[in-house]
């Protein structure tokens, strides 16, 4: 089965939940077509009544006019109901697919998010879903209406004059040849257009989030060059995608001209021979126009469907990404860890070709403090990723409270950790809501107390609405230090048995850091703490120091032991920390 057929079958599964609306839409589409097709008969009859040699029958003419008005009115109502049903299906399917895509995003492993451009993911979940839901559903409706119109007009034309009808039928299918030619050349172009649209969305997202850095380093021209390059490629792919479809209008006009010429010539000959009336010729010309219209539009519908299928392919490609390994059926909930952590014979690498951690062993007793040190980019966050089970070990095991973490549900495991990351994250909402993110059931008094422990209370009280002050996306209206303080308050509120601090105080001034370190000392008592450390005080007071270089753990021990060893830690300490 071709890829396009597989995509269409998947879309149909989403539409099945809206069968009543699809059926209603098709029913009223059929009613609309039937009423529209009957109008030319009435117009033709009206013309024949007007040009009769005898006295004009005004009563019949007014009766015909009344019927036309009624038919047009019912046609408009039918089209309105059809559009309502189409919108219900379109937006309903878009919502369901977007829900599935977003829920799937939440279940994807961290390595997927780390290895894909965020803007492209956004483009697939937002723009591509809109494109395919609009294109596929509306395209199918147009196709159905078009087929009914072709069959209906053909029946009416044959009932009026079969010979002239055959002229129309023989000439019009040339449009199908044009549509087939267009379809063959547009699909791959629309795929490239959709992919490049995701690329440009990713670039814009990246630049908006890092505008300060761009301006601070005078990188505006380079950014413009990058954007111009991607935008130029988007333009080229878009132009190529519509190049063939742009031949539709002139080619269909040419075919229409042939049809009208044929109808005019054969109609005139038939009228001269008394085989057809002037009114019937008028009806025939109207039917010829309605008959050719779906053929004229078919290339546009095919183009729209090709674009929709290309976008649907990108969406389903995302939805089909392998989810994070599911918890075992017999996985247990870790209610409250005692803080004991063990790593036994752990092997791990992000890339199977490059060895990272080999046969690593570590035993951490409750309440111990572990410092992870090393040069920038050495892979200090790897240990954290493994402890949180964002990544699974290749070999060996990690135990928390004596349980292999693979036998613990991820949710309960992570609830036993409190994290303060180097890259802060705050949601759009009030300051109180952001602090309570660590404990949604916390009272206002508990939130205030946590803020006080994190030394965030004073600056919060100076905000316009205090704890009810709404902060923008990612805390854009706060300083980096203030954002860090709120993230620390979030952990203070939760007070889990195990703490993970990833360069937690790197964005806070020295004075504030001293206060926070005091709060940390109090918070760490009786709690196991893993600290990605850059501070001398943190390193010296750690029970165990893990020294990393080039992504590997090369030394471990306490501060005095590692200095006596005079290895890499000794060099690192004297180059960065010694006075």
Automatic annotation (TrEMBL):
Domain ABC transmembrane type-1: 23-307
Localization: Cell membrane
Membrane topology: Multi-pass membrane protein
A Gene Ontology term for the protein's cellular component: plasma membrane
Protein origin, superkingdom: Bacteria
Transmembrane segments: 20-41, 61-81, 136-158, 164-183, 254-276
Keyword Hydrolase among record annotations: no
Keyword Transmembrane helix part of the UniProt annotation: yes
Gene Ontology terms, MF aspect: ABC-type oligopeptide transporter activity; ATP binding; ATP hydrolysis activity
InterPro entries: AAA+_ATPase (IPR003593), ABC1_TM_dom (IPR011527), ABC1_TM_sf (IPR036640), ABC_transporter-like_ATP-bd (IPR003439), ABC_transporter-like_CS (IPR017871), P-loop_NTPase (IPR027417), Type_1_exporter (IPR039421)
Keywords, alphabetical: ATP-binding, Membrane, Nucleotide-binding, Transmembrane, Transmembrane helix, Transport
PANTHER family per the UniProt record, alphabetical: ATP-BINDING CASSETTE SUB-FAMILY B MEMBER 10, MITOCHONDRIAL, ATP-DEPENDENT PERMEASE MDL1, MITOCHONDRIAL
Protein name: ABC transporter ATP-binding protein
Species this chain originates from: Anaerosacchariphilus polymeriproducens
């Amino acid at each position: 089965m071709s890829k396009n057929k597989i995509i269409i079958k998947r879309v149909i599964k989403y539409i099945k939940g809206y069968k009543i609306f699809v059926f209603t839409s098709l029913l009223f589409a059929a009613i609309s077509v039937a009423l529209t097709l009957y109008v030319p008969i009435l117009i033709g009859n009206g013309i024949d009544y007007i040009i009769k040699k005898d006295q004009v029958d005004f009563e019949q003419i007014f009766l015909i006019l009344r019927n036309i008005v009624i038919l047009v009115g019912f046609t408009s109502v039918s089209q309105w109901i059809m559009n309502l049903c189409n919108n219900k299906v379109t937006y309903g399917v878009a919502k369901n697919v977007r829900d599935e895509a977003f829920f799937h995003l939440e279940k994807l492993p961290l390595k997927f998010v780390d290895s894909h451009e965020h803007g492209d993911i956004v483009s697939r979940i937002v723009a591509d879903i809109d494109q395919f839901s609009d294109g596929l559903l509306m395209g199918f409706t147009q196709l159905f209406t078009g087929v009914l119109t072709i069959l209906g007009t053909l029946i009416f034309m044959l009932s009026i004059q079969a010979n002239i009808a055959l002229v129309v039928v023989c000439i019009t299918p040339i449009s199908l040849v044009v549509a087939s030619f267009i379809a063959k050349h547009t699909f791959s172009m629309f795929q490239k257009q959709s992919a490049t649209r995701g690329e440009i969305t990713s670039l814009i997202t990246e630049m908006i989030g890092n505008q300060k850095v761009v301006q601070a380093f005078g990188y505006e021209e380079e950014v413009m060059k990058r954007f111009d390059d991607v935008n130029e490629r988007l333009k080229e792919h878009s132009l190529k995608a519509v190049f063939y479809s742009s031949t539709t209008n002139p080619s269909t006009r040419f075919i229409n001209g042939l049809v009208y010429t044929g109808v005019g010539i054969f109609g005139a000959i038939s009228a001269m021979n008394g085989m057809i009336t002037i009114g019937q010729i008028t009806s025939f010309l109207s039917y010829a126009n309605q008959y050719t219209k779906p053929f004229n539009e078919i290339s546009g519908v095919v183009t729209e469907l090709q674009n929709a299928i290309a976008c649907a392919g990108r969406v389903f490609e995302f939805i089909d990404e392998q989810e994070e390994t599911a918890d075992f059926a017999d996985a247990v909930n870790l209610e409250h860890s005692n803080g004991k952590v063990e790593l036994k014979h752990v092997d791990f690498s992000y890339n199977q070709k490059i060895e990272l951690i080999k046969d690593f062993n570590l035993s951490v007793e409750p309440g111990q403090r572990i410092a992870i040190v090393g040069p920038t980019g050495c892979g200090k966050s790897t240990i954290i990723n493994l402890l949180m089970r964002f990544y699974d070990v290749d070999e060996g095991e990690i135990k928390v409270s004596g349980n292999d973490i693979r036998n613990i549900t991820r949710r309960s495991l992570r609830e036993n950790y409190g994290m303060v990351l180097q890259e802060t994250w705050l949601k759009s909402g009030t300051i109180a809501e952001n602090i309570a993110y660590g404990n949604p059931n916390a009272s206002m008094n508990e939130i205030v107390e946590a803020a006080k422990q994190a030394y965030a209370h004073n600056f919060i009280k100076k905000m316009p609405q205090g704890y009810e002050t709404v902060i923008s996306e990612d805390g854009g209206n706060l300083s980096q230090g203030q954002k860090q303080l709120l993230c620390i308050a979030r952990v203070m509120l939760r007070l889990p048995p195990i703490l993970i601090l990833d360069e937690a105080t790197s964005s806070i001034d020295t004075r504030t850091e001293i206060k926070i370190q005091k709060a940390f000392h109090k918070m760490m008592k009786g709690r196991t703490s893993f600290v990605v450390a850059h501070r001398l005080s943190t390193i010296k007071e750690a029970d165990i120091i893990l020294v990393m270089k080039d992504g590997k753990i090369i030394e471990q021990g306490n501060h005095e032991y590692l200095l006596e060893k005079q290895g890499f830690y000794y060099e690192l300490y004297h180059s960065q920390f010694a006075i």
